[in-house]
């Protein structure tokens, strides 16, 4: 039976397009549905300033953990905040890749994710955000997806920074949605909107 790749970023793009979820940084000038179609077709997308900040901040945290002298010299204005996060994830398995096959509505999906850090039963995800309010990531599909991928983990912690302050948002396995239910909703929505074949065409799992 054919298998299809399913990622948090695809589900996140879909939910943002249909709900305009507040946990993603966005501006009113973005066409979220057009962006979702780009993701669905796996077309190259432009890296926004917010996305690049997230990449650069995470790279700085990793450089501090690994004592990479060259990497630690970049974005020095973030060093203190990144160092506090590095102290939390030090000793963790970094960029831990995980996958799992599940069946939903008669289709086989390969759930896939790359965890920023996994340590002692806790998944950590590093975020850079220009603004933060408590519960910002409550509706994110990331922690439900990663809990499904890592059965030994019972805690998920978002480590969020604006480059100066560090915030934590903590979720336990027993209080989050079942990702397979969300995947099912996604499949039904694609079917109802005539987009399922586009998904099947571009997201076949190797």
Commentary on this structure:
The chain is α/β, with parallel strands linked by helices and 206 residues long. It has one domain (3-202): Lambda Exonuclease, Chain A, CATH 3.90.320. Helices cover 40% and strands 25% of the residues. The protein contains eight helices and six strands. Strands 1, 2, 3, 4, 5 and 6 form a six-stranded mixed beta sheet that branches. β3 (107-119) and β4 form a beta hairpin. The longest helix is centred in the N-terminal third of the chain and has 17 residues, at 49-65. The model is unreliable at 21-29 (pLDDT under 50).
Secondary structure blueprint with pairings:
Blueprint: E1 3-7, H1 8-19, H2 32-40, H3 49-65, H4 69-72, H5 79-89, E2 93-104, E3 107-119, E4 122-128, H6 142-149, E5 155-161, E6 166-172, H7 179-192, H8 196-202
Parallel strand pairs: 1-3, 4-5
Antiparallel strand pairs: 2-3, 3-4, 5-6
Helix pairs in contact: 1-2, 3-5
Structural class: alpha/beta
CATH class: Alpha Beta
Number of helices: 8
Largest sheet: 6 strands, mixed
How much helical structure, as a percent, in the residues? 25-40%
Distance between the termini: 12 Å
Q: Return residue spans where pLDDT drops below 50 for at least 5 consecutive residues.
A: 21-29
- The share of residues in extended strands comes to 15-25%
Q: Could you state the order of secondary-structure elements as H and E?
A: EHHHHHEEEHEEHH
């Amino acid at each position: 039976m054919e298998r299809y790749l399913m990622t948090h970023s695809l589900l996140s793009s879909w939910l943002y397009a249909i709900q305009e979820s507040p946990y993603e940084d966005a501006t009113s000038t973005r066409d979220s549905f057009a962006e979702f179609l780009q993701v669905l077709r796996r077309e190259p997308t432009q890296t926004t300033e917010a996305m690049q900040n997230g990449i650069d901040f995470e790279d700085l945290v990793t450089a501090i953990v690994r004592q990479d002298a060259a990497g630690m010299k970049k974005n020095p204005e973030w060093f203190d905040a990144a160092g506090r996060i590095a102290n939390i994830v030090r000793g963790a398995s970094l960029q831990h890749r995980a996958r799992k096959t599940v069946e939903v509505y008669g289709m086989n999906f390969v759930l896939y994710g790359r965890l920023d850090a996994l340590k002692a039963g806790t998944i950590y995800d590093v975020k850079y955000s220009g603004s933060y309010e408590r519960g910002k990531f409550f509706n994110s599909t990331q922690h439900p997806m990663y809990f499904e991928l890592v059965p030994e983990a019972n805690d998920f912690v978002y480590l969020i920074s604006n480059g100066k302050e560090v915030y934590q948002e903590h979720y336990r396995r027993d209080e989050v949605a079942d990702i397979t239910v969300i995947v099912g909703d996604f499949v039904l929505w694609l079917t109802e909107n005539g987009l399922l074949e586009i998904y099947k065409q571009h997201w076949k799992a190797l």
